[in-house]
Amino acid sequence: MGFALSTALHTSFDDALARTREALAEQGFGVLTEIDMQATLKAKLGEDMEQYVILGACNPPLAHRAVEIDRQIGLLLPCNVVVRADPGADGDVLVEAMDPQVLVDVSGEAELRPVADEVAAKLRAAIDSL
């Protein structure tokens, strides 16, 4: 089983990042965290890499339902969405989100499946709209 929902865009990195934020918002997700891996690795390690941003996305009603089922599920929240330049295809940007079914698999909590299904549908809709 794969663990990502993804698409490739032929656009600028900044455009892909902005479109991803908009698509997530349209599906009820807010971005709680943003990690610029390129800048962080350069500043902390002196290492270069392609543009790579991790967005921590949260849909509050769905997160609440999940935490009500299993308090430890917060260890796996928020949903990470990665926007990254494709090093193998100049001009392409990859947008990837963790498949929420992984939460069910990792936790072993079958009651989370309907919540994970709903989150997955919303993330797929966001990614498909790009």
Structural overview:
With 130 residues, the chain is of the alpha+beta class. It has a single domain, classed as 2-Layer Sandwich (TATA-Binding Protein). 44% of the residues lie in helices and 27% in strands.
Q: How would you characterize the largest beta sheet?
A: 5 strands, antiparallel
* CATH architecture descriptor: 2-Layer Sandwich
CATH superfamily: TT1751-like domain
Structural class by helix and strand composition: alpha+beta
Task: Choose one word for the global shape.
Answer: globular
- Measured between the Cα atoms of the first and last residue, the distance is 24 Å
Kindly give the count of domains.
Answer: 1
- The fold-level CATH name is TATA-Binding Protein
Radius of gyration: 15 Å
Offer a quick outline of the entry:
The protein has 130 residues and is an alpha+beta fold. It has 5 helices and 5 strands; from the N terminus they run E-H-E-H-E-H-E-E-H-H. It has helices at residues 13-26, 37-45, 60-69, 101-107, 113-129, and strands spanning 4-10, 30-36, 52-58, 79-85, 92-98.
